[in-house]
Every structure is written in structure tokens, then in C-alpha cells.
Amino acid sequence: MDSNLAYLRESLSNHLEDHPICQRIYHKLETKQYKDEDEFVNDLEDNEATILNLILQYELDYAKNEQDEERLQQLNGVYERLLV
């Protein structure tokens, strides 16, 4: 699995109880073999992309506050694909 997607999966695991859409996104990451972030983002439905955008904003802020540069870079790789 792409390392950016692995970080995303780990971050999503913190939100599985919050929303069923998070569970669906997580399930996709668990069951499908995406070659990269572009393939993953292209597989998202509109509502999934919207929720993921919100979660990533939260997770990026958290990584900044914790000064976790590795996590910040990995998650930002997915976030940038969502914005395209």
C-alpha cells in the first residue's frame, strides 16, 4: 500500500465511530489495492470526498500542532489530490 494511504487509513481509524462514511472509506482502503493516491481519490464518491476533506483538515491541524512532519507530509499528499 502507498505510504500516504497507509497514514490515511491509520488516521481514519480514529474517526470510525463518528460517521458511517468514514467506515466506508476505511473499508475501501482495507479491501482494495490502490496503486497511488490518484487512483484512490478517483474511486471516492462525492460524499466520501467531502467527509474525507473535513477529516484531513482536522488531521493536518493535529499533525501541525504535534510537529509531526512525517505525518503532515503523508496526509498532505492525499489532501492535495482531493483539491484537484
Automatic annotation (TrEMBL):
InterPro entries: CsgA
Pfam families: CsgA
Top-rank lineage group of the source organism: Bacteria
Protein name: Sporulation-specific SASP protein
Organism of origin: Halalkalibacter wakoensis JCM 9140
